[in-house]
Amino acid sequence: MAPLRPTADLRLTPALVIGAAELAWRFSRSSGPGGQNVNTTDSRVELVFDLAASAALPPTIKARVLGRLEGKLVEGCVVIAASEHRSQWQNRVAAQRRLVELLLEAIKPPPPPRRATRPTRGSVQRRLAAKKQRGAIKGQRGARPQPED
């Protein structure tokens, strides 16, 4: 997971490490709990990771992540905002954790393709029996009863 120090490198896997220099931080005032303190402190955190220009990820993994996260990217950058805590420090840690979780999910290899199989004879018979029963129920709703087969 994310380190306890928000200024440290992010370790996704033992082989994949995102340097602290590749992460950009922005701070602003948060609109959450905090009373009068919320008007004076910049506790909201935005963590920006330029995925398209990153040298930390190998090209194959970078292409996979770019494809999976293309709807969440802003000009090739992943932007994570955290403002759920009153403390800027806790929001920084939360933003890093969310970035790590997002990237780990996007890095996973694609699942194996599904092999097409035929339905079993029993499942086909059950489906057809259920359809016949449902049709019989609907047939009884008419004005005159239908003769059964």
Describe the structure in your own words.
With 149 residues, the protein is an alpha+beta fold. It contains three helices and six strands, in the order E-E-E-E-H-E-E-H-H. Strands 3-4-6-5 form a four-stranded antiparallel beta sheet. It has a two-stranded antiparallel ribbon with strand order 1-2. Strand 5 (73-74) and strand 6 (77-82) form a beta hairpin. The longest helix has 20 residues, at 88-107.
The backbone outline, from C-alpha atoms, is: elongated
* Strand ordering within the main sheet: 3-4-6-5
Task: Look at the structure and give the mean pLDDT.
Answer: 85
Uncertain segments:
none
What percent of the residues sit in helical stretches (DSSP H or I)?
Answer: 25-40%
Helix and strand element order: EEEEHEEHH
Beta content comes to 15-25%
Spatial separation of the terminal alpha carbons: 65 Å
- Class based on secondary structure composition and strand pairing: alpha+beta
Strand tally is: 6
Helix run count: 3
Task: Tell me the Rg in angstroms.
Answer: 27 Å
**Main beta-sheet annotation:** 4 strands, antiparallel
Describe the secondary structure blueprint for this structure.
Elements: E1 10-11, E2 17-18, E3 23-28, E4 44-50, H1 59-68, E5 73-74, E6 77-82, H2 88-107, H3 121-139
Antiparallel strand pairs: 1-2, 3-4, 4-6, 5-6
